[in-house]
Amino acid sequence: MSDAQSRPDPYGEGGRELDEQESSRRVITLLSDFGTDDNSVAVMKGVIFGVNPEVQIVDISHAIDPYNIEVGADVLAMAYHYFPKGTIHVAVVDPGVGGDRRGILVATENYLFVGPDNGIFSHIYEDPAYLWVRDLRAVDFFLEKISSTFHGRDVFAPVAGYLSIGEDPEDFGPVIDDPVKLEISDCQVRPGGGIDGEVVYVDRFGNLITNIDTGVFWDGESLAGEDEGTLTPTIEIAGVTIRGLSEFYREAEKGRCGAHFNSWSRLEIFLPEGRAADELGAGRGTPVKVRFQLNRS
């Protein structure tokens, strides 16, 4: 890593302003664990279009592991700031639907978020641009009949639709100060530059994405106490040691796991044309250690 390496901002500054686009149509994104085998996602889109036929709807993902709020929160966190400022993000991974969990509207300076109060917006609360959370209580913005099993259709979709046509967020409910927050796993930089982290997400290719970003890596490298060119990072995971970083997937030897920083500035463990998760028997929560070794001439 170079001393000139910029420390990543995991939240970014947001995409362009909506009025800087060729079209000023509002954007709504959808994220869920619904899959695409039935009509759930299409029905949510139909409800939104019923409120605002001109809105643009983008699917972030509907392949979140069923009921896995933590993964939903991670995927949303990696995606939301790439959208134009003013985008409304709807996230529905909702095992508590029909119970006493609240529906909420969350705001940052750049975006609005709609979904259940179960921790799926935990990363959003850490965004420096975070503003407030509102309890969705204004039933006039819901569908007339609300089921106990599909609030994505009956509550969250219509709320997003009304927000997209300019309804004032203040009209949806009161501000609350106790939203549910997940315990977000942070990596640790140890004296001497060692880094202790873990896998937080496994993508569809079996790549293991960790909570170690380039800024943390740079901190560890600096604490190792030697010039950059004299150090080689070693990554330890599931009993395997990976020496050095690759620039791209095929740079690593076929059949052997490699490590690099991915497009999200996260340390990622991969297996060229294979699945690192299966090869290593690793998944979310698997410990990952980084150490810096002095090169021997």
Key features of this structure:
single chain, 297 residues, alpha+beta, eight-stranded antiparallel sheet, seven-stranded mixed sheet, 18% helix, disordered N terminus
Describe this structure in words.
Helix 1 runs parallel beside helix 3. Helix content is 18%, strand content 27%. It is elongated, with a radius of gyration of 21 Å. The two termini are 20 Å apart. The strands form 2 sheets. Strands 8, 9, 10, 11, 12, 13, 14 and 15 form an 8-stranded antiparallel sheet that branches. With 297 residues, it is of the alpha+beta class. The longest helix is centred in the middle third of the chain and has 14 residues, at 151-164. The protein has 5 helices and 15 strands. The chain has helices at residues 40-51, 69-79, 151-164, 214-223, 276-280, and strands at residues 27-32, 56-61, 88-92, 103-108, 112-116, 130-135, 175-176, 188-189, 195-202, 208-213, 231-237, 240-243, 258-261, 266-270, 287-294. The model is unreliable at 1-8 (pLDDT under 50).
Assign a percent range to the helix content.
Answer: 10-25%
Q: What is the residue-averaged pLDDT?
A: 91
Shape: elongated
Radius of gyration: 21 Å
How many separate helices? 5
